[in-house]
Write a structure and sequence with these properties.
Blueprint: E1 6-11, E2 21-25, E3 29-36, E4 51-57, E5 71-74, E6 79-85, H1 90-96, E7 102-108
Antiparallel strand pairs: 1-2, 2-3, 3-4, 3-7, 4-6, 5-6
């Protein structure tokens, strides 16, 4: 698989990169950048070695953007835990500019929600 191209959709800060943010990808997925949460943040949740858990403001994720089966859990304090495979694509990580204490996960997009990316 080639490098991942991402497009910023929403961010919790002005520069859109050094804070939690939401991106779509050319793989019909959604890349969620957020604060790295403990892998045991959700009791009973089974994670693979490649999974990560990130925490984002609950209103950051646009309604209906991610697939219905995306593993998301409200924290009760205005944030949402999102679980998925950790982003490892070098080009996407360079674009994201992850600050210390943050990570990014890739989750499935809802059908028909990702516009075509210019290649």
């Amino acid at each position: 698989m080639g490098t991942m191209k991402i497009t910023l959709v929403a961010a919790a800060c002005n520069n859109g990169r050094t804070c939690p943010n939401i991106n779509t990808s050319d793989r019909d997925t959604v890349v969620v950048q957020g604060y790295l949460a403990d892998r045991d943040s959700v009791p009973g949740l089974v994670l693979s070695a490649s999974d990560a858990v990130v925490e984002i403001p609950i209103g950051l994720l646009p309604d209906g953007l991610v697939a219905a089966d995306t593993r998301m859990y409200p924290t009760g304090r205005g944030t949402l835990l999102v679980v998925g495979p950790r982003v490892v694509d070098a080009e996407a990580l360079a674009e994201l500019q992850l600050p210390e204490g943050e990570d990014a996960v890739e989750v499935s997009a809802a059908p028909g929600r990702i516009p075509a990316h210019a290649g």
